[in-house]
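Q: Structure tokens for this one, please.
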Amino acid sequence: MKKIAVVAANGRVANKVITEALNRGFEVTGFGRNDNNTKAQKYIKKDIFDLTADDLKGFDAVVDAFGVWAPEDMPQHSTTLKHLCDILSGTDTRLVVVGGAGSLYVNKEHTIQVQDTPDFPDAFKPVANGMGKALNELRDRDDVKWTYISPAGDFQADGERTGKYILAGEELTLNDRGESIISYADYAIALIDEIEKGNHIQQRISVVRA
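A: Here is the predicted structure, written as tokens:
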């Protein structure tokens, strides 16, 4: 039985991940700074910056579902991820990061990202920049077994759970209908699949609805 921890466990993506993991027989511990709003078997109320190596010891994987939206909070994408990397450094515990789509590339040369394109909404640029910066810093960590999973461009909180997805890489990928879309529920399937049988260590991958 896999034993996982979900950090920032009260968020909507985190709750889908927890539900998917429980349905597959995983043992799930949630960590969050607010009162428990999850289905995890165990919940520890603790701020992410207060987590220690002992808190995360013995887990097969730690899922980082942290996210902020206010422009002034954007540096926390980097600082929280660095903290998790530091306390997992040198261990066999995988760190699986719920990422963003803005940093996916739209050309084969990997010089233009989604967030650089003319149609990218200004309102999402601070988040895309903040998460993209954290990803770039994560790429420098060779002491942690990390995997960064970007969703499709249209990431739907209440979208259908189809049970099908396309696993892709660093480039924005469209399905056969020309869509870049995935629900939180299908994203959670892909994330748990990666923990269960994937081996994309120190890689960024992405998922889109099939």
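A few notes: DSSP finds four helices and ten strands in the chain. The longest strand covers residues 203-209.
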